[in-house]
Write a structure and sequence with these properties.
- By secondary structure, the chain is an alpha/beta fold.
- The protein is about 30% helix and about 25% strand.
- The chain contains 12 helices and 17 strands.
- The strands form 4 sheets. Strands 3, 4, 5, 8, 9, 16 and 17 form a 7-stranded mixed sheet that branches. It has a 6-stranded parallel sheet with strand order 12-11-10-13-14-15, with helices on both faces. Strands 1-2 form a two-stranded antiparallel sheet.
- The longest helix has 14 residues, at about 155-165.
- The termini are close together.
- It binds zinc ion (ZN).
- Zinc ion (ZN) binds next to helix 3.
């Protein structure tokens, strides 16, 4: 099969389109014929490498995929017998991998599993004609959802839902600041925060993106290139009789984190799921203890989170925003677009078949 492979970390040139053996599904695994690949910042990190972190190179990247069931490993077909899934069925793939046996997994906290991993990060992903996934990671794809939309879902939408619900427990009427409103996870978080009844303030880097986040439901938009978000928040939060925001979603990291903490009210919560500008930040702890702040970390979520997200989409409460689709041959360009923040929502790469 054709597959994009990374043998060593680096720039776009390390992604090589190669001929690889078509993988065979093992026990309780399924082979998926890839129809669409959603691109995430995680894929950029896998390509570039992360200091102090070891990825299992060489590997096929691609954490978010959707496609059709192509073949079954031992026991997998029987495991799906009572579902509607069979060979050829369109599926959404939960990209979170875990053991499915430990206390964390059995209590629905798969992201706390000692064996937690993500497709395309800890094992071969979906930037190929075929990918192998555990049978328990499949969710039927509703007929109203395209393959591109299904591939744009798992990492950003599950991460956003898990952050807003189980991590910071966002409540109606609360003020939430969501950074980088045009990013995949923020496009999801803005819509979810509105569904949960919060007031949404978001930051963007262009007037074009400002109009788009407004259309998604953001109540206030700050262009971070024109003004400092802390100064702008001082004009917004008094309208709600508050001295700051209740919750901040910060996946930018070193460029924003300290100001994000300053933006919080007493008892405020910050949740981080990434650090696109850098992960090392010096924090003044006085800010944390005097203001009784809490900081939550979040990596993806549970399979139940994905199922809830799929339901919200089916109910029309949530939209999947696909900025553009590129052909399979342009996979490295898709990562470039993401890295250079030229995307609003998601960029999806079409599968070969
Ligand atoms: Zn486990």
């Amino acid at each position: 099969m054709k597959a994009w492979r990374i043998e060593k970390h680096g720039g776009p040139e390390v992604l090589k389109l190669t001929e690889a053996p078509t993988p065979e599904p093992g026990p309780m695994q399924v082979r998926i014929r890839v129809q669409a690949i959603g691109v995430n910042h995680l894929d950029v990190w896998v390509r570039k490498g992360v200091p102090g972190h070891k990825f299992p190179l060489p590997m096929i990247p691609g954490c978010d995929v959707s496609g059709e069931i192509d073949s079954f490993g031992a026991g997998a077909e029987a495991a799906l017998q009572k579902s509607d899934l069979k060979k050829g069925s369109p599926v959404i793939v939960n990209s979170a991998l875990s053991c499915d046996r430990c206390e964390a997994c059995l209590s629905g906290n798969q992201f706390l599993c000692a064996e937690f991993g993500i497709l395309g990060e800890t094992q071969d992903g979906g930037a190929a004609e075929y990918v192998i996934v555990p049978v328990s990671n499949l969710i039927p794809r509703p007929s109203s959802m395209t393959a591109a939309e299904a591939a744009a879902l798992p990492v950003p939408y599950v991460t956003a839902w898990s952050m807003l619900t189980r991590k910071v427990n966002l409540r109606p009427g609360e003020l939430i600041l969501i950074h980088a409103g045009g990013s995949g996870v923020s496009v999801a978080a803005i819509q979810m925060a509105k569904t949960l009844g919060a007031v949404v303030i978001t930051t963007v880097g262009s007037a074009e993106k400002a109009a788009k986040v407004k259309a998604l439901g953001a109540d206030h938009v700050i262009n971070y290139r024109d003004s400092n978000f802390i100064q702008e928040l001082k004009k917004i939060t008094p309208q709600y009789h508050k001295k700051g925001v209740d919750v901040v979603v910060d996946h930018v990291g070193s460029d924003t984190l300290n100001d994000s903490l300053k933006a919080l009210v007493r008892g405020g919560r910050l949740v981080t799921c990434g650090a696109t500008s850098g992960a090392e930040v010096a924090i003044n702890l006085k800010l944390i203890f005097f203001k009784n702040l809490s900081i939550h970390g979040s990596t993806m979520g549970s399979k139940a989170d994905l199922m809830e997200v799929v339901d919200l989409i089916a109910q029309g409460k949530l939209k999947v925003v696909v900025d553009r689709e590129l052909p399979f041959e342009k996979y490295p360009n898709a990562l470039d677009l993401l890295e250079n923040r030229q995307i609003f929502g998601k960029v999806v790469v079409t599968g070969l078949r």
